[in-house]
Amino acid sequence: MSKYIQGVILAGAALALMYFSALYFVPELFVILSRALSLLVPFIIAALVALLMEPAISLLTARTRMSRSAAVGLSMLVFFGSFGLLVTLAIARLVRELSELSLHLPRYVKPVQEFTTYTFEQSKLLYFSLPPDVTLKLREGLGNMTGNLSDMAGSLAQFLIGLAAALPGAVLGIIVALIAVYFFSKDRELIVKLWLNLIPSPWSERSLQVMREVSRAFLSYIRAQAFLVSLSTVQAIVGLYIIGAQYALTMGLLIGFFDVLPVMGPAAIILPWAIWSFISGNVAFGIKLVVLYLLIWLVRQTLEARVVASNLGLHPLAVLAVMYLGLKLIGVAGLFLGPILLITFQSVYKAVKRV
User: Fold this and answer.
1) Rounded to the nearest 10 degrees, what angle do helices 188-198 and 132-186 cross at?
2) Which of 98, 262, 278, 339 is the most buried (most CB within 10 A)?
3) Average per-residue pLDDT in the chain?
């Protein structure tokens, strides 16, 4: 067994031990670390954006007589301006298609109402023909279902209230992140010098090398995920246009948005849509939607490990293994955290080996 593989195994075992110790034996520490990480989110995002803009800033300062402050300002203007323009165009198209959808919504709702009424009448006839003990069990089941729906409604209301309460904090976080982006980019060399003065040698150089490796690998991982989400979105939009779906762009963008969410995925949009099509009698269109979903799912499953591995310089089997272990240990979030932890191990190993 090579020293690299031994190092990865030891690092993984150590991290797993730290994780379970913090989670099960020192829960207070786990809560504190989670809270600290949530507070640092605006600065982490700002650091990542600053890293993304650094090549453009370096190019501007090298090719022109522009000062670094001006180059940072121009880069931020182009970066966030382009992002804002794309979001504005997408929202304008969404509003137009949603307006058209609202005009035709009664036509889509009517078949569902007819099916629901028919099903209710048939269920009522069946209910009165059942034995008393069976009807008792059904009433108990309906009572439990009603209680569960009430709990779900209460949870949804609490979630919406919490979301509304979090909006001011989110706005403040965005403002802080924008300011931090400017200073991270403008005073990059000053921050590095300050770090070198605070941490004794050789740990300062090693820590900087580790941060560079982790940042490079993490950006590669983000780039891989962005490619996969973009591919799913393009597949959805093109596929919906091919099968003749109305509002293909709106629904395709919505599918792409849900593809970013680890718990949801494209199935949260496509499968209910297909079920609705079956209920309303449009069986052929429902089958087309199911085929489209299977195609998106198959491409995603086939390419995910390979794309992530190629961007990180890792073997696809290693990425697949950590994704599977992450899923089994901590749930769906482990699909994303597993590769990130592997990135960290690899980056630390490379940095320590080079210094």
Assistant:
1) 90
2) 339
3) 74
